[in-house]
Amino acid sequence: MSLHTISTVNISLIQPGFSLLNFNGDIFLFGQKGWPKRSCPTGVFLLHFKQQEMKLRPVSFCNDSRYLPPLRSPAICSLIDSDSEKHQYLLHGGKTPNSDLSDKLYIIKLVSKGVNKKTTLSCIEKELVGDIPEARYGHSISMVYSRGKCMAVIFGGRHYMPPGQRITESWNTAVDCFPQIFLIDLEFGCCKSYILPELQDGISFHVSIARKDTVYFLGGCTLGSNSRSPNLYRLKVDLPLGSPAVSCTVIPGGISVSSGLVTQISSDEFVIVGGYESENQKRMMCNTVIVDDNKIEILPRETPDWSTEIKLSKTWFGSNMGDGEVLIGIPGDNKHATTDPYYFYIIKFKEDEDLMQNCSQESTEDQEDSTTFEDSEEFYFSNGLNDFDIDDTYNEDDEDDESEAGYWIKCCASCNVDINTWVPLYTTELNKPAMIYCSKSEGHWVHARCMDLSENMLIQLSQDNTKYFCVDHVEWALGLQTPTKQLPVKRMPMKPIHKKIPIRITPPVKKSFLRRLFE
């Protein structure tokens, strides 16, 4: 066991609540700070370690992947695909940069990694039916295997107050989810909930360890009583041909811990490190957990040689890297502007040994009240020269000064498009806002949503290739328009006052008739 300090190069991307995915020894970061930028629209990065220095490389998704928002404190577990026998991850719930909660279930797997180090992932959203678990975070998801079948188990977590009770003053107030078990059939997406008498209180940020048909829930925090009871539950799931059979047993000998990190070092041995034993007290101890078919044993374990910074820090966070390693971070000294926002360490519990990660709870205690963990910090990361031989390294120069140009400009006085809070509005948007060109003078670009354009109008303007003027210049454009040609008014001539009567000439025949008449 050893503790290693990792130097970072201006990384403010990692935040509490991030998750790590291990695909055949390659570590991927998920749950970045803020919404993704153009340099890495997926928001997923490959961690590259070189001479005790951690760098990030952007990762792309295949074309048929679903959009995966950056989520904090989701539930994650690994499994083996029965068809391809490839390693993949289940991801459920979590909190977006806008503090909205997700109820989606995603399946993430590695598609390809070529010789040019271009990495491609696949993300599939699984459609759920039945008793769908509500949106939550700080919960756990585990895989159970019984009688040749497998199911996912979801338990615990926090969610926002119901809509009828959610007012302005308590809009982001979280409460414990109802203590029930959800079983999900991954083949058909069918969900079934179970209420067990042994589970009385809702818990979150607990430890979840699965082995075959059994899942152990250890520790956790209960918001209602603000306590971290030494809970230890054994959930057994039997999957016969009919309906599943679920039973729960309360086991003595648990430990009081929340936000504990779990890493697997052998087929039946796990290590718990980090977390909190009270609201304001870190848990500096480590424990070895030995899991047998019907038995669990928790033993004390030698702790790493903690650095002075870790001992003095009031908070910490991290995630399981797999292969018996854990990445932890502590807040930097925010009293100085030049100080890095976080310092990172790697704890290695075993050396040079291959293993298959089973299931763990990558979570961190909810840090909404800490100014260090705000999501509004600038998305900034840079690399030095000659760091890589390829051009896929994330570099801040690729952003083209997005604060003044590009898609994230302030297009008008009422512009409310922010890179850290932006979410897609139109179906044509993926990782950047839709924009339209204003033809005033030299022209400039404006956001379609700031102009209150409907999607049909936006598509029509693009297809017709007509000139468009934004709301600030529409009056100016009207003043330049050529007036409509009007037909002249038809004037009737006036009747003269003294009109000359024409002289009528009587023909000779009529004269002779009149002469004879009067004679």
> What does the overall shape look like?
elongated
- In the CATH scheme, the class of the largest domain would be Mainly Beta
Q: What is the mean predicted local confidence, pLDDT? A: 79
CATH architecture of the largest domain: 6 Propeller
- Output the CATH topology of the largest domain: Neuraminidase
Runs with pLDDT <50, length 5+?
Answer: 352-405
Write out the strand line-up for the largest beta sheet, numbering strands in chain order. 2-3-4-5-1-30-29-28
Oligomer: single chain
**Helix proportion:** under 10%
Q: Gist?
A:
By secondary structure, the chain is mainly beta. The protein is 6% helix and 33% strand.
How does this structure look, described?
By secondary structure, this protein is mainly beta. The chain contains four helices and 32 strands. The longest helix is centred in the C-terminal third of the chain and has 11 residues. The protein starts with a strand and ends with a helix. About 10% of the residues have low confidence.
